[in-house]
Amino acid sequence: MTFSLGQIAEQLGLTLVGDAEQVISKIAPFEKAGEQDISFITNAKYLPLLESCKASALILTEQHAASYSGNVLLSKDPYVSYAKLAQLFDTTPACAAAIHSSAVIDATVELGEQVSIGANAVIESGVKLGDGVQIGAGCFIGKNARIGSYTKLWPNCSIYHSVKLGEHCLIQANTVIGSDGFGYANQQGQWIKIPQLGSVVIGDSVEIGASVSIDRGALDNTTIDSNVIIDNQVHIAHNVTIGSGTAIAGTTGIAGSTNIGRYCIIGGGVGINGHIDICDQVTITGYSMVTKSITEPGTYSSGMPTQANRQWRKSMARLSQLDEMHKRIVSLERHQRPEAE
């Protein structure tokens, strides 16, 4: 797959400074780019290396392009332009082609136009699939589920009964949506299961990584708004709500009935307690533990950064002494106070 620089500029809506006929065959990292490659710069550390770059073209801001004599596509945000360019060069195959003869599809299923269903998929009664839906091999779609137009499911996804997925969603392999939430009552040491009577409702243009589990609600629904992105191996418990534009990195766990606002960024390995609220535009750095509500936008962190083992052992030993040290300080302060006149 090749494009001329002129074609790329037109497709991306960028201004070209240079040879419109230059052929581009792939996108390459800045330091490895060569003939017929295009690259980009978002990190200022590469600026001194501009003239030594062997790429046939670069995507640069107007400010950075002033110090480069080669072919340039001018962009206000080179990283966003790179993302759009990568879509032009994307050769990812469809999740499924046509409807495979081994797929098991109930007679009551409503299929939109140009639906594709892979081998050994199972689609149960009452399901509705919108136009252009792609269901990968081995997927399971439970009774009365709804999947919006142009949504794609990679192999072995399980979508439980009555779950609703919006349009233009992308679900990676082995993800489970709508499994039972962790709901039990304890009767004299015996766990009594609480049937989960809600469902999961997911908006449009949501992307969910591989091996994610999203539990159905106990009474109300678990809800994920449009334009949310979720990385691999995230767990979202029952009755969680996630606002639009939020991004969640891998291995994060969100306990039940927590409400997460819009345009939040949650780092990898974060643990979020149940029954709390996180307001809009909050960033939580990786491996933080969130135990109470966050009511002000901003960046929040917890946890201990890596240290050399010897230093870490000393730090832990001192940490265990904090309570005793506190008592000694209080005692010293009490004895040093001047007596009241």
TrEMBL record:
Active site: 238 (proton acceptor)
InterPro entries per record: Hexapep, LpxD, Trimer_LpxA-like_sf, UDP_GlcNAc_AcTrfase_non-rep
Catalytic activity field: a UDP-3-O-[(3R)-3-hydroxyacyl]-alpha-D-glucosamine + a (3R)-hydroxyacyl-[ACP] = a UDP-2-N,3-O-bis[(3R)-3-hydroxyacyl]-alpha-D-glucosamine + holo-[ACP] + H(+)
Top class in the EC scheme: transferase
EC code(s) of this entry: 2.3.1.191
Domain UDP-3-O-[3-hydroxymyristoyl] glucosamine N-acyltransferase non-repeat region: 22-88
Pathway the protein contributes to: Bacterial outer membrane biogenesis; LPS lipid A biosynthesis
Keywords, in A-Z order: Acyltransferase, Lipid A biosynthesis, Lipid biosynthesis, Lipid metabolism, Repeat, Transferase
PANTHER family, per the entry: UDP-3-O-ACYLGLUCOSAMINE N-ACYLTRANSFERASE, UDP-3-O-ACYLGLUCOSAMINE N-ACYLTRANSFERASE 1, MITOCHONDRIAL-RELATED
Family in the record: Belongs to the transferase hexapeptide repeat family. LpxD subfamily.
Subunit structure: Homotrimer.
Purpose: Catalyzes the N-acylation of UDP-3-O-acylglucosamine using 3-hydroxyacyl-ACP as the acyl donor. Is involved in the biosynthesis of lipid A, a phosphorylated glycolipid that anchors the lipopolysaccharide to the outer membrane of the cell.
UniProt name for this protein: UDP-3-O-acylglucosamine N-acyltransferase
Protein's gene: lpxD
